[in-house]
Amino acid sequence: MRRPAWNGSPPSGPEEARERILTAAMRCIDTHGARRTSLSHVAAELGVIRQTVYRYYPSTEALVAAVGYAARDSFVDRLVAHLAGRADPAELAVEGLAFTVEELPGERYLTALMSTGQGTAFSRYALSEVALGACREAFTRTDVDWAAHGFTGAEFDGLIEFLVRVLLSFVAEGAEAAAPPRRGAELRAYLRRWVAPAVRPEAVACVRPVRAIAG
To answer: Which residues bind DNA (predicted)?
Structure first.
């Protein structure tokens, strides 16, 4: 006997429908893995036809990306809590990157696109304005006075984009490398050597005259 639509409890509106679809998608990822989860699995979990899910999410990629965004806020809260007490911008950038590199592989919803083989899609979403905005918000919630260190406006935006691009290189390495990527003290030493200098105030100051001349 066929189950009633929405398992007998239709959503009150589009917002609730989206939330229930995302929750069902997470359950399907837990059961089948991100690579094997499909819109048909999600529809069956909800007791609806696949076209109902299509109405809100036009592809599996779009749905999996939405799952990642839904899981983002929880991860950002953990990151900000981990960085509490750090007021040096370079050290905060190093630890923020290191923490994310080490913790991200265990975040099955955040990395679902990578698990489906959609590495390019993962990078595209990570560099989207929505994702970059979440990163900016996370860094402004830390104890660093970014403006006092010269990071305002375009400089701050550029820093966030730079750090996300560095993160993506580590994510890609971890997904493809046969040997485990750097971790722990080795990872932090590497980031202090190559990333920290770009985040120090003197690095910000030295690029301003070049921009002034170019303008």
So the answer is: 38-57
φ, ψ dihedrals at 90, nearest 5°: -70, -45
Tokens (6 digits) for 134: 């979440």
Sign, Cα dihedral of 10, 11, 13, 14? negative
Residue-wise DSSP of 24-91? HHHHHHHHH-TTT--HHHHHHHHTS-HHHHHHH-SSHHHHHHHHHHHHHHHHHHHHHHHHTT---HHH
In eight-state DSSP terms, residue 149 is: G
Which residue's entry shows tokens 């696949």? 50
Task: Report the C-alpha gap between 62 and 56 in whole angstroms.
Answer: 9
- Closest-CA residue to 101 (of 132, 65, 75): 75
Q: How many CB atoms lie within 10 A of CB 189?
A: 13
Q: What are the tens digits of pLDDT across the range 148-188?
A: 999 999 999 999 999 999 998 888 776 555 555 788 999 99
* Structure tokens, 93: 């950038």
The token duo for 146 is: 């970014």
How far is Cα 163 from Cα 26, in angstroms, rounded to an integer?
28
* pLDDT digit string, tens, across residues 75-125: 899 999 999 999 999 999 999 999 999 998 888 887 776 655 555 766 777
